[in-house]
Write a structure and sequence with these properties.
By secondary structure, the chain is α+β, with helices and mostly antiparallel strands. It is 33% helix and 22% strand. The radius of gyration is 23 Å and the shape is elongated. The two termini are 33 Å apart.
Amino acid sequence: MLTKEGCRVRQDRLRRLLSEAKIDAVAIVHPLEIYYLTGILFPEQFPGQPALLWIDAGGDSWMVAHSDAGEPLVDACYTYECSIGGTINPYMRTQLGELVAERLQASGILAGRVGYQREFMPKLLSDQIDRGLGTEPEWVDMDEGLHRMQEIKDDDEIALIRKAIEVDLAAYTAAQKVIAPGVNELEVLGAAQQAAHLAAGEKVFHDGDYQCGQLGGFARDRRIEEGELYIIDAWAIYRGYWSDLCRTFAVGEPTELQESIYNHLRAFHDQIGDYLQPGKDSRDCAKAMDAYIREHPALKEAGLGHHGGHTIGLRAHQMPDVNATRGGIFQVGNVVSIEPGSYIPEVRAGVRLENMYLITESGPENLSVYPMEIRLQK
């Protein structure tokens, strides 16, 4: 999990942001941001127990959640009952809000400007915070500030991303062993998922594009056909952090055109160091990728079939992304996926090849070292 030291650094960074904006406190409600700042990861899905993290610009912090297990990095933790006899309480946010209001009333906290997550704050909770403060504070959107913080990864985050990549690559190794004409796409996914769990040493999320002969899409109850290209854009989440990679495999012996396109796209990764540099604009990378792909005679009209990549971490897609019309400036500490891809009917889908890179002072480090071979490695 994330370390206490890393969470303390991030809380200090957030407090500086609050002070600079003259915000008295911030209420964090999304489980990923709570994890980012406290080291405790609550499930987003079932049972989906909600929580609220309160951080004062002056230094105090407390959390209301269904449990105080795991030693969250807060000064105090207050709990509500989320189930009775194993049956989930259907009004957990009501309990959460009441406890938040009680905590605010008891503490006598004065907060005229309160930061919040615009995308995730329920009205029920904001109303209870108003009640607890005994006033209507000025609510200040903190989404952009939190996003900017998360663009640059700390050491404990990078360690979890490396593990997520290791899990994802284990899935690729297992998938290659079962890919063959006549094999069901669901069998390929099943073998990959089993390998991901075993590589992680725990249950993890693993899925992605597992449709054969298509640009993308989830695995179907369909048998693979010889002559198709199998694009596997596989995702894994390890303790909150994402891996997003892609490899393309020939089902049977590749045609000359399939192999030519594959080699052309693979070679773009050899020049990625020209673009993944601190201070470079991610839009320039996307434009260069599209221009390079079009140098192949068969891809002159198709070009880059989608974005060129994206920053990644707690969420699969973070900013800056790698798009021709939207992006930003790369910084040391960004983890960026780069995925040249192009698709034409003549090759029975197309080719997409994705690696993840850490941007350092001296350029990109490939975090996902793994063979890029069109032929299956059995």
